[in-house]
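The methods section describes the discrete structure representation at length, but only in general terms. What matters is that the chain and its backbone geometry are given together, residue for residue. Nothing conveys this as quickly as seeing an actual entry. For illustration, here is how one protein appears when written out as sequence plus structure tokens:
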Amino acid sequence: MAWMERCQARYGDVWTQRIAQEGTWVMLSHPDHVKQVFKGDPKIFHAGEANAILSPLVGHSSVLTLDEGAHMTQRKLMLPPFHGERMQRYGELMRDVAEREIDSWPAGSTFPLWPRMQAITLEIILQAVFGLDEGPRLEALRESMRSVLEGSTDKLAMLLLALLGPDRFGRSKLVRRELDPADELLLAQIHERRGDPTLAEREDILSLLLQARYDDGQPMSDRELRDELVTLLVAGHETTATSLAWALERLVRHPDKLARLREEVAAGEDTYLDAVIKETLRLRPVLPVVVRRLTEDTEVAGWMLPEGVAVAPCIHLVHRRPDVYPEPRRFRPERFLEQPAGTYTWIPFGGGVRRCLGASFAQFEMKQVLAAMVERVDLSVADPAPERVTRRAITLSPARGGEMRVSRRAARAPVPA
């Protein structure tokens, strides 16, 4: 991040960098340029092609790696479970998972909260996606997917990916040894659920996707479902857990903000909670950039760029523009009470037709977990120094894992009759 800031200071809002296996990237940090990319023709601005680095894990049928008509068709099938009443129905599940995890923590101890947030978000996404009760099947999926997700951020794996490129890396024994057992479990679960006589009555995401139909009346294939399920697990687990860890890391170093949040949650309100989440995602976005690869020569930000170049709106730099966010390095949730988030100035989930389809789900989940946290435990800093940002594969997480002291809150006295 410091390097990107130095580049911006030296070259302005547009500059070029070259990356092994990725070619030429043109970095963008002005909202007008971001708008041009997000509103650009999806036939020219390819996000799926730019996301090819993810294909060894999520596959080639993922909404992340598809482009143009194929992407929009798949997105249309994927969107309904993540919005409206269907999403709201997952609220009780999210809250129950969070409360069980929080209640298991050793009282009065100091430990990093990021791994605990990972446990919560993995459990939520597994249960919401597969609709499985606790038992051998859920445990097998939990352990298998945990292994895959941890392997996806291994430093050696990242080095091999950079050296080999996604296609060769995806065929390597290192990758297949991790993914093949997980794929067997996923495909078996898909096959079993497809034949479930109660399928039409179920509301888990897998069941909803099995019932979805393309315009020609055909269902998604097992392979398409496998790729989308892994996409949901990857996109809905690591990113949300990291954002929760950052929210707590910021709140615990701003006791006045934490106290205000606790008061409003106790009063049954969520306006400030929403502002805390937005400010966390502004100041500590989990991903620093989004990328589109050009399929033809195109003018972007006043420059004629050749086919094959990638344009990369920089989330980190856009979110720290003092002309948009006064005192941009300061954690101040109140700014989102004073002014709503801008379409091209608050972009933690990307934008345009490629905006993360789980954005509403992720923010809703963060609300449930943070509300449970402030109601059930008191938090205090283990080290007053802010945690620096460290890179974990493609995500940006707290260097010490959101380390803090956790104490059990005293039970509230009942209200007199």
User: Anything to note?
Assistant: The first helix runs from residue 2 to 11.
